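Posting for a labmate who doesn't have an account.
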Amino acid sequence: MYDEQSVRGIVLSGTLLGEFDKRLVVLTETMGKITVFANGARRQNSRFTAAAQSFVMGRFKLRQGRQAYTLTGAEIEQTFLELTQDMELYASASYCCELTEYFTRENVGGKDELNLLYVTFRALLDRKLPAEAIRGAFGIKLLDIEGEMPEVTEENLARYILSAPIGGTYSFRAKDEAIKEMIRLSKKEQKRVLDYPLRSEEILNSLDSFGKNG
């Protein structure tokens, strides 16, 4: 029988299983990206319902299996479920989670990525910056954390973001053209390193087209 353990993390995504269960992908501080089965999470009055939602941050109690973990308890710190009430915010948060899921691995600590997701969710909800600017800055910062961002020598917004601590990633105020240039660079570098397009990016593109034609 495997011992239980407790880890701090954020739910990146969830998949429905059978009639009542869910399969979660959770990014943790110490264990990286792991697969967690939340048995009965979709049953009425299940104690796992709230914890088994995307964007939920907390401490998860797990029992290790041969290839995955089973959720045995959870202490929620923040849910960020307000992100699901606005389509652009929801798609933006999903995009950040999907990009994080692409890069992170099991048994490789994810503390920096976890902190970046936390401040990103906060920035999206604060609405002080456009969601597109937040996505662009997130991409640049995440690529840098993963060692995939080339050196930026020019004194521009991207360089500011790269030099800022994670908690200060979204403290910038810049002119529209500087933000647009940063977004273009972020998209260019992501296209360079990604093996396939992100599903959430396709949704964002559809929302953008709808907004322009609406």
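Reply:
Got it, the structure tokens are right above this. The helical segments are 87-103, 111-126, 131-145, 157-163, 176-193, 199-213.
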